Amino acid sequence: MTTNPNNPTSANGLQSKSEQTRAAIILAAARHFRYEGYTATTMRKIAELAEMEAGSIYYHFSSKEEILDEVLDLGLRRLFDEARHVLVEAAKQNLTFQQTFAAMVDTHLVFLLEESDFTSANIRNFPTLPKELRRSHRPLRQAYSDLWNEFMTQAQDAGIIRGDMEIAPLRQFVLGALNWTVEWYDAKRYPVSQLSGRLSKLLLEGMAVKNSAVLDYLPTAQPDQAPVKPGAGKKANRTRLKILSAAARIIRDRGYKAATMRTIALEAGIEAGSVYYHFGSKEEILDKVLDLGLRDLLEGMVETVSDENTFPNDLSRVAAAIETHLKYLFRSSEFTSANIRIYGQLPKDVRARHWPVRHEYAKVWDNILEEAQHSNSIRSDIKIVPLRQVMLGALNWTVEWFDPDRSDQDGYYSLPELTNMLQKLLLGGLLDKG
Fold it and tell me: What CATH architecture applies to the domain 211-428?
């Protein structure tokens, strides 16, 4: 039985005690899944938040997986239904593409940030769930993607949005920028309508003031290169690096709580007891992984934007920063993608330890964007912090859908190709400017 906790009434309009309890469980689970992640959430935690005995949950759900199934379904089904309604009404009212796009963006953000915890729990957890837990929810996710695909294909065929890119990356670019807002936007302090209006304008028009000249400022993306492992050539560090790499892959693909000493040792292909010769605890390993992930990125970014001979103007530095960020996400190491992917679900004390370097990295971006605004190279009608967050959101979300190792297959892109597309989209926008 599927329960909608926001409208869980029976046919006669009354809610039974069983339905009330079931709804309370689902609401509590969605909150935990959103902020702590599926792996870290336990039946006991759900029961505590639902203000009931842990054993009582089993009268309503047989397992945490069953609760997850209902949360994931609710999280996307109501969004899908509303987005489909928006498109139908827009067609009836003969709205322009820009008007309809703004309505679609607003609908997505309202469900993600304001309506409930269900959509954000779905967005945050789905990529790191085991395949068997994702399988039954793929059709609905595909149906939602298809809504956007059809909507954007019609606009592309009409010459409204740019025709130099396939629809799939255009849609992923938009949804990535929207989905990442769950990591930074505070809907309790600022209205979602304010964000959606500015975000839709930014996605459509891009950052650059002189859009016709955007291509002149794009540096040539460097050829795709094999991953660079820090310290891999030093014999004394090989086992240590193997352990750290294994831990990074686990937290990137399965979440923070999944990285136990046993799973790390298994992933690294060594005996569990051997890990303790190199690290005193799991926390030490994970701290090192998270630190490496962002510190390497910070150092690489500083080096890039300091090269004024190669990047002599503000737009070229913004484009180079985009390329550097993507290079570290996909090619320098698994540490950066691990950090980016699970930071929002880390315990508060862990996040606090790594906040200074994240803040330092954000300031590098803020300085780049501020200089570009001062030279009138990029728009000044959006403040620096949300501008940076939207940019990084579109870039960071690529870890959920892009695989550079499949670039030799038909229909897939190389990292330089992806980089060039995102540079054009972030600077020039979705609209075809002729």
Answer: Orthogonal Bundle (1.10)
* Three-state SS sequence of the chain: CCCCCCCCCCCCCCCCHHHHHHHHHHHHHHHHHHHHCCCCCCHHHHHHHCCCCHHHHHHCCCCHHHHHHHHHHHHHHHHHHHHHHHHHHHHHCCCCHHHHHHHHHHHHHHHHHHHCCHHHHHHHHHHHCCHHHHHHHHHHHHHHHHHHHHHHHHHHHCCCECCCCCHHHHHHHHHHHHHHHHHCCCCCCCCHHHHHHHHHHHHHHCCECCHHHHHHHCCCCCCCCCCCCCCCCCHHHHHHHHHHHHHHHHHHHHCHHHCCHHHHHHHHCCCHHHHHHCCCCHHHHHHHHHHHHHHHHHHHHHHHHCCCCCCCCHHHHHHHHHHHHHHHHHHHCHHHHHHHHHHHHCCHHHHHHHHHHHHHHHHHHHHHHHHHHHCCCECCCCCHHHHHHHHHHHHHHHHHCCCHHHCCCCCCCCHHHHHHHHHHHHHHCCECCC
State pTM to two decimals: 0.84
Q: In which residue ranges of the chain is CATH 1.10.357.10 found?
A: 17-205, 211-428
- Asked if CATH classification 1.10.260.40 holds for the domain at 17-205, the reply, yes or no, is no
**Cβ-Cβ contacts under 8 Å for 245 (sequence gap 6 or more):** 229, 268, 333, 334, 335
77-136 pLDDT per residue, tens? 999 999 999 999 999 999 999 999 999 999 999 999 998 799 999 988 888 787 888 888
pLDDT digits (tens, 9 = 90+) for 35-45: 888 888 999 99
